[in-house]
């Protein structure tokens, strides 16, 4: 299932910001990503078979729900700059942002988060999993990608000490089941971090009224996601779910992305509506934002056995002879 695609990692001094990354254009054709052709492995051809729909590529095996996940991923995950700026150059906020050994990036999308983590931490083994093989063909030697459906049974046999989940809202039918799987896949002391968007858009000063296209856009996204059984508004529940399944020291941070300077619609109607949205996004009159949630927590350390937990015959010692 995993496909290894190694490359010669860039020098460490390409990340001069004390281990934090600097926002860039993340061009996959970057000359730093180079390797001899014989060191590469291609994904199986059957996995690379796509259907084209409105300019987006979908795998042949995908159903409506997986298509929504891939479409959302292609829109929201291909721009890591927003996340780097939001997190002040860091890839995560939990203690495992540095120093993890086995890392899983769930819904890896373009694979850029996994690649960046693997590049910054060459001693870590980083696995990215997604429904679609849209990751770059050249990756660090400690970075691996797998094509799988995380709503099904997780089959990894070796535990992780850090699991990253970025922008999975709108991708899952059962978020408690998903977080439970992550908990079970972590080793004691390991961390899960959920970074997500929350719809609809917010506004604190009344400038985004119900008549604005941006207001309608956020609510239409949410209505469509609920109709498909993959809601776009679960992020405020993550902290409670994590505590319920057993995580401890759960931290929630709410941030914002500022806006500005399924429905049965025809393609033409969508294009006209998008024109209105773009016009409002360019205007400084509407002070809307997209809520961002970052939630992380630790799986409890393995309990230390007390003397009272020892078997009854453990203190009896070896039998003596007369």
Automatic annotation (TrEMBL):
Pfam families linked: Methyltransf_23
Keyword Phosphoprotein: no
Molecular functions (GO terms): methyltransferase activity
Record's keyword terms, sorted: Methyltransferase, Transferase
Gene Ontology BP annotations: methylation
Region (Disordered): 1-22, 303-322
InterPro entries, sorted: SAM-dependent_MTases_sf (IPR029063)
Keyword Phosphoprotein applies: no
SUPFAM superfamilies linked: S-adenosyl-L-methionine-dependent methyltransferases (SSF53335)
CDD domains membership: AdoMet_MTases
Family statement drawn from the similarity comment of this UniProt entry: Belongs to the methyltransferase superfamily. LaeA methyltransferase family.
Annotated protein name in UniProt: Related to methyltransferase
Organism, as annotated: Cephalotrichum gorgonifer
Upper lineage: Eukaryota, Fungi, Dikarya, Ascomycota, Pezizomycotina
């Amino acid at each position: 299932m995993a496909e290894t695609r190694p490359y010669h990692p860039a020098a460490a001094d390409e990340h001069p910001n004390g281990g934090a990354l600097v926002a860039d254009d993340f061009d996959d054709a970057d000359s730093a990503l180079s390797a001899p052709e014989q060191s590469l492995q291609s994904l199986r051809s059957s996995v690379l078979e796509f259907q084209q729909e409105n300019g987006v590529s979908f795998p042949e095996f995908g159903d409506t729900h997986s298509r929504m996940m891939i479409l959302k991923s292609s829109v929201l995950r291909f721009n890591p700059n927003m996340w780097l700026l939001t997190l002040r150059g860091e890839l995560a906020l939990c203690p495992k942002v540095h120093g993890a050994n086995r890392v899983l990036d769930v819904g890896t999308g373009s694979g850029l988060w996994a690649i960046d983590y693997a590049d910054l931490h060459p001693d870590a083994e980083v696995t990215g999993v997604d429904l679609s093989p849209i990751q770059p063909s050249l990756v660090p030697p400690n970075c691996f990608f797998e094509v799988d459906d995380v709503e099904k049974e997780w089959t990894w046999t070796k535990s992780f000490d850090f699991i990253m989940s970025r922008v999975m809202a709108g991708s899952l039918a059962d978020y408690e089941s998903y977080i439970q799987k992550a908990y079970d896949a972590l080793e004691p002391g390991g961390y899960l971090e959920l970074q997500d968007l929350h719809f609809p858009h917010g506004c604190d000063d009344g400038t985004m009224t119900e008549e604005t296209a941006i207001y309608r856009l956020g609510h239409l996204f949410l209505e469509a996601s609920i109709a498909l059984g993959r809601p776009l508004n679960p992020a405020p529940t993550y902290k409670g779910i994590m505590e319920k399944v057993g995580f401890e020291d759960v931290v929630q941070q709410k941030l914002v992305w500022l806006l500005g300077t399924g429905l049965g619609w025809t393609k033409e109607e969508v294009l006209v509506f998008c024109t209105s949205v773009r016009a409002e996004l360019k205007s400084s009159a509407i002070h809307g934002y997209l809520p961002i949630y970052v939630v992380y927590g630790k799986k409890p350390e393995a309990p230390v056995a007390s003397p009272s937990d020892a078997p009854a015959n453990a203190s009896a010692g070896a039998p003596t002879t007369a």
